[in-house]
Amino acid sequence: MLLCIPNVLTKQQVAQCRAQLDAAEWVNGKVTAGQQAATAKNNLQLAQTSPLAQALGDFILDALANNSQLISAALPLKIYPPLFNRYAGGGNFGVHVDNSIRYVPGTIVRVRTDVSATLFLTEPEEYEGGELVIEDNFGAQEVKLAAGDMVLYPATSLHQVLPVTSGARIASFFWMQSMIRDDGQRTLLYDLDQSIQELTMELGVGHPQTVKLAGIYHNLVRRWADT
């Protein structure tokens, strides 16, 4: 499932992040790439262990915790601490698949990367190029969202970032280990949850149809959950 989620951060929150990121020191982005992906990666990143990266990462995690659409779509069990990248001057990231396991530095925590996420921190008109191209069931999808918006997609997807030919593209990116390992099952549960929300608005939370559908949802989660 490829899903765009609007307004994960408000414009004011984006501005707060950008004020700090625009003054930050950036390092070569290859430091967090796997052996194969590193050959295709040409960008800059905020050092993962820097106090700024950790503070902004916590800020984003707080926003994610209150986003019901993200929780419904990803059903996250673990979230890898958000990272930050910058593309400019022709920077790009060629076609690749994300590593299956990410190791949180300085801990014993391991995160299986079921869901990839990119949270855009620059407006589309601030840069040329830089589209995130994701291969899904409907072919190649180009994603270039407003600042504060986020895209979720299966980490198993082939994807790339096209060269940024002018301006700079700044984003946060991270991965989630879902309670539901299979993307098809996650998609079904998300669609079912959206139907429950619509029925709740139309008929009420206690209506028999709403209760029945909610029961089906929760029984499927119990059956499929991988915790």
Write up what this structure looks like.
It contains six helices and 16 strands. A hairpin with a 6-residue loop joins strand 8 and strand 9 (110-112). The longest helix is centred in the last third of the chain and has 21 residues, at 183-203. The chain has helices at 11-21, 35-38, 51-65, 68-74, 183-203, 208-224, and strands at residues 3-5, 26-28, 41-42, 44-46, 76-79, 83-88, 92-96, 101-103, 110-112, 115-120, 127-129, 132-136, 139-143, 150-154, 159-161, 164-178. Strands 1, 2, 4, 5, 6, 10, 11, 14 and 16 form a nine-stranded antiparallel beta sheet that branches. It is 33% helix and 33% strand. Helix 5 packs antiparallel against helix 6. The protein has 227 residues and is an alpha+beta fold. The protein is globular and about 55 Å long. The chain folds into two domains: 3-178, Jelly Rolls, CATH 2.60.120; 183-224, DNA Excision Repair, Uvrb, Chain A (Irregular). The model has no long low-confidence stretch (mean pLDDT 94).
Offer a quick outline of the entry.
The chain is α+β, with helices and mostly antiparallel strands and 227 residues long. The chain is built from six helices and 16 strands. 2-oxoglutarate binds at residue 169.
